[in-house]
Amino acid sequence: MSEFQPTSGGSSTSSAKLWVVLSGIVGVLLVVAIALGAGYYWGSSSKEQTMTAANQALATETAQIMQATQQALPPANADENFQTFWEVWNLVNKEFYHTEPIDEKQMMYGAIRGMLQSLGDDFTGFQEPEAAERSREDMRGNFEGIGAYVEYKDGQILIVSPIEGSPAEKANVRAGDIVVAVDGKQISEVIENLERDQALAEAIKLIRGPKGSQVVITVYRTSEEKQIDITIIRDTIPLISVRSSMIGDIGYIQLSEFKQTSYDELDQAIAKLKTNNPKAIIFDLRNNPGGYVNQAQNVLGRFTKDGVTHYQENSDGTQKEYRTLQQGDAQELFDLPVVVLVNGGSASASEIVSGAMQDTKRATLIGEKTFGKGSVQSVHTLSDKSEARITIAHWLTPNKRAIHTLGITPDYVVPFSDDATQYPIECILNRTPADGATSCADSQLFWALKFLNEQQTPPPPPTPTITPTPGK
After folding, report:
1. CB-CB contact of 370 with 395 (8 Å)
2. What residues act catalytically?
3. Architecture (CATH level 2) of domain 145-236
């Protein structure tokens, strides 16, 4: 893996590994790596990984920005600012009633969490060494578990999306499911009073496990307003990110994440589809939680010859422009009509791609509003192997629309339905009809095909009606 070393000052124990994280979903259940920024490669490969000149420039720039934090030196006014802290620390050691020795390391970790939590940013946080090592294992590709991306939101553990082909997907775990219990243990009790990173770490600890073991996940499905017990047999998680098929004379491409091999996989899929002379493309980014930013630039470079992909906005208001890339054996889809499918599980790099396609009118977006994750984090491995994750910037679309917390609203909002009587579609990618049905069903894919084949647009979603409460 790529690693920065301080250019001056510091020691080997105080130097920190710097990861630039494109704001993907940080919680993972023994699945793929959390989303990373341009030029940082994780895991093993049969060929040497190299960074492009552009990515090296980004790496150098980021290293310079973060160099001061790598040296672990206290600020000049530390004595003044920490006087009250040390007063309380000493009072605890002197006066706190305890029958077992006080764990000062946990006191220190708690203070760090409190410091970061006070910033009011859900994605700035701290991981203790054990949890941090689990994240590093996930980065290296040792993936056995249920295969789902999770997030901590409003005090709950939320399924952002199951991974394509994973045990979670096969067991019908869905984006938006709220994890209520694991093997009967209530999640609310496990994560009570914990900040975001701790809560995710504790939930993941319950859910993950070795291949072949069984776990029962109790979820609350908001779309059906009911609680469901789902039995899952853990397995090795598939890491293929691109799958494709022809649907009539339209090419369909599904991208499940932006991993380091994604644009190579995409090129292979495009080359195969081109042999069938597709008249249009459906590009499915639903439940795609994000990934490497240079992969997002390369993916856009397959649909647009040249153009802005996004801007990075820093704390001082300065903005840096990023453009399309055509690395590798780039296949072109410059001239075909495109529909991009998105939903609430489309996050981070998915939002960069869908936002750019929408802003430049390169594609029509159909589906549901995206997740709204548009920040970038630097992740530092500290001297004791714990980790601090600091948000350093936000992403903007080419038209400089904010993504973070807002998401991308598609051109045509279509709620998902798997009602085969209303939205029948051809079964593709090893899908099979539901019990009693003769075809597969997917309302969003159904309307994408209608739009491209018949130029028919979806009807607007029904407006919710509010029944007034009778006066007393």
Report:
1. no
2. 348, 359, 373
3. Roll (2.30)
